[in-house]
Design goal:
78% of the residues lie in helices and 0% in strands. The protein is mostly helical and 121 residues long. The two termini are 19 Å apart.
Length: 121
């Protein structure tokens, strides 16, 4: 399968890769680098989401979707767990990207993993 075919057949993982990159750069682009917990979380989780999406594009494994889904859930709750929910931009960024990451992980896992998320393929 060519790279172009992988990108189009696994568009959810391609989009998750872009979401991971967007999250990674969001502290600088959206000016919340002074909110240390939010910025570090965005950098670390954004990088992991992007790496997991790339891995899924080239060697799909259902566990990668599970990890992406868990990271999506983490992003949704992180503003309150890490105490940066008062910063609206950081909170909105984390929650929206978290929801999108979670939905795409479930969708990709369902589509590529025989209709259900299960450990192994």
């Amino acid at each position: 399968m060519t790279t172009q075919e992988r990108l189009t057949s696994s568009w959810q993982d391609s989009l998750n890769f872009l979401l991971g990159l967007a999250l990674f750069v969001s502290p600088w682009v959206l000016s919340y680098t002074s909110e240390i917990n939010a910025a570090w979380n965005a950098n670390i989780v954004g990088a992991v989401i992007a790496i997991m999406a790339l891995a899924a594009l080239f060697a799909y494994q259902t566990w990668e979707e599970w990890v992406s889904g868990l990271l999506g859930i983490w992003l949704i709750v992180a503003p309150w767990v890490l105490a940066f929910s008062a910063h609206g931009t950081a909170t909105l960024t984390h929650v929206l990207i978290g929801i999108a990451t979670l939905v795409l992980a479930i969708w990709s896992g369902s589509e590529h993993g025989s209709g259900r998320l299960s450990v192994g393929r």
